[in-house]
# Entry
Amino acid sequence: MRGADLGHPFPGTRAPRGGTESVQSRIETYSHRMPPAHYFSHVTAAIIHGLPLPWALQQATVLHICTDEATTRPELREVIGHHSEPGRLTVLEVRGLRVTGALDTWCQLSTMLGLDDLIRIGDALVRRQHPFAAMSDLLAAVRRYSGHRGVKLLREALVWIRPGVDSPRETDLRLLIMRAGLPEPEVNAVIMSRTGVKLATGDLVYRRYRILLEYDGEQHRTDENQYHWDVDRLDNLMEDTWRVIRINKSHLATRPATVIRKVETALRSRGWRPASSPASSPARAGNLLLPGS
# Structure
């Protein structure tokens, strides 16, 4: 490439001019000039770890860089510099990039995100496949964060987080029905037939009432093998007297009241009755005592 074809996004770096610069390309470019005392943090660290963020933050090209040395905090265009006490944060390497650990990243984001975003990330940390941590690790991280801004929101998020979730939309569906005063379902629970044969691993399961809530993501629509497998699986469940309620992104975005009504109607038809005063929040956090309790 000719010199005229190259831009200088950061001092001492070069990158092709033109086009839309992605946050991933900026991360990679900055990493080549990153001093040894610097590491990616906050939103940038969440992107590197693959944690779920609001769409606007996923697309933002501003980088968050942290250092234990206050005098070396970066002061560059489209870079937000942070300082941390030496040794307080876990710093590790992910695909060759120095970055705060996923748990510390979640705690850092408590000053930037709302409650539900922190719950989604928390669920992702203790997800069913390849989890970053266990519930006990989240509890310990919140305790270590005591006294810092945002810890109150982390404590509230911890109450709602559940291990075993597969996607942020599953989290959204669970929050929707629980906040409506409906009972809490099991998350990604194994369903056996009356004869002891495994029928499915259900997204949200009301085992007592034989009701399954299934969130249909894009893969269910675009993957033909997945689609045919879903048809057979759900047919087997219904033959075994399970009531299956399928919900997609459109239902959650535009018709949440309809989702609540369907679930409540199904539960009532199977014998569920509401308590005298529905709770506004769950009473446990993955069977762990909350900080301060």
Notes: Residues 251 and 259 are 7 Å apart (CA to CA). The chain is about 40% helix and 20% strand. Residues 182-269 form one domain.
